[in-house]
Amino acid sequence: MFKRLLLTGTVILAALLTTGCNDTLLLNNLSQEQANEVLAVLQQHNIASQKSGTLKEGYAISVPKSDTTTALSILNQYQLPAKAEVQISQAFPDNALISSPQAERARMLSLQEQRLEQSLKIISQVVNARVHVSYPLNDNTFITDLPAEHVSILITYSGSLNENMFISKIKTLIKNGLSNVRFEDISVVLFQAPPLQYSAPTQGAQPLMTPWLYALCGVLLAALLAGGSVLYLLVKKQRPETPQDVTPPDVPEKEDMPV
């Protein structure tokens, strides 16, 4: 009976150690828009991700433990979770102090950069994009003559595409999005996105369990052994003695009677 109890306890211990280890929390405290965007990108790459949470407390994204490395690689490439979309009204709130014309134009160009980046990122093969507009902040002609702007675009993409045609379309988009830029002053640089990482880096021999798991195993095993020992002693104490266990009383030897 003691062996059966010990075996049952070992099975329970193994079940406790393996429960809840299938999923990994990837992100939390996300807005609904951020969570949906992350969920969509992960599922596009066949990652079985799950969304949980509420609008008030924020949303969380979890993935299977075996897909954690791949999911992190995807988030790194796509720079997720993304920031909230920029609105022009954010740059000029009603209660803002009046700033100089140079500062207002610099702020406007910065917002235009971010909005153009947002437009580029919705293209299917674009993984990430950056837009940089050059403008002379310390030049007095900045406001009067409005010199031609120079724009540089950095794009990482996935899959295969016709780079010449793609660059031409990007330049057209940028030229029509900025009022004072010439087609020849726009440069587009393309980079192929690196392959996703599907497994964790190879490391040296690592312990199978962390210290707290060792401690938990020790406590549970000690409790099982102590409980089993007490139960064994109680059962042995309450068990009736068998005839084999009873020691016969000493019988005095008979003395030889004289004849």
From TrEMBL:
Is Lipoprotein a UniProt keyword of this protein? yes
Q: Which residues cross the membrane?
A: 212-235
Q: What is its main location?
A: membrane
What's a GO cellular component annotated to this UniProt protein? cell outer membrane
Q: Which residues form the Flagellar M-ring N-terminal domain?
A: 22-189
Signal peptide feature range? 1-20
> What is one process in the GO biological process aspect for this record?
protein secretion
Highest taxon of the lineage: Bacteria
Question: A Pfam family for this UniProt protein?
Answer: YscJ_FliF
Q: Where in the cell is it found?
A: Cell outer membrane
Q: Which UniProt keywords apply?
A: Cell outer membrane, Lipoprotein, Membrane, Palmitate, Protein transport, Signal, Transmembrane, Transmembrane helix, Transport
In the bilayer, the protein is annotated as: Lipid-anchor
Similarity comment: family membership: Belongs to the YscJ lipoprotein family.
The name under which this protein is listed is Lipoprotein
Task: Record the organism.
Answer: Sodalis praecaptivus
